[in-house]
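Quick one, tokens below. Sequence please?
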């Protein structure tokens, strides 16, 4: 395990389309998938943008599952909700190679929603 934690900052916007929550992500002001390839111990900081907060959304948790049970790595991941639900930090120790399904759980005005999967893949450092 690497002793330096890489921090990656994402802004998250959520809009309702009928009864579906549509998540979009930006990183450094540019559109992003919200997932990616991890090659070192990493913390993904997902921060709700102002419009999303004003609409009443909060993070409540995350569901992290293995995509390929032959290459399990979901146990490398943990999450912490902070800042009154406006931020969720996904930490990945990157100890095992594999891919996970990462679903964000949110609430808005008493209704629960889930994100689509911004897939995260663990690989060895080059």
């Amino acid at each position: 395990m690497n002793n330096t934690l890489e921090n990656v900052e994402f802004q998250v916007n959520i809009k309702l389309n009928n009864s579906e929550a549509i998540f979009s992500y930006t990183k450094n002001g540019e559109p992003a998938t919200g997932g990616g390839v991890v090659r070192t111990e990493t913390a993904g900081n997902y921060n709700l943008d102002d419009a999303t907060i004003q609409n009443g959304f909060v993070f409540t948790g995350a569901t992290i599952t293995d995509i390929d049970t032959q290459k399990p790595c979901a146990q490398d991941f943990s999450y912490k909700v902070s800042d009154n639900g406006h931020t969720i930090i996904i930490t990945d120790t990157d100890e095992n190679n594999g891919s996970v399904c990462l679903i964000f759980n949110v609430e808005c005005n008493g209704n629960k929603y889930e994100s689509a999967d911004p897939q995260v893949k663990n690989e060895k450092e080059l």
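The mean pLDDT is 90. The radius of gyration is 14 Å.
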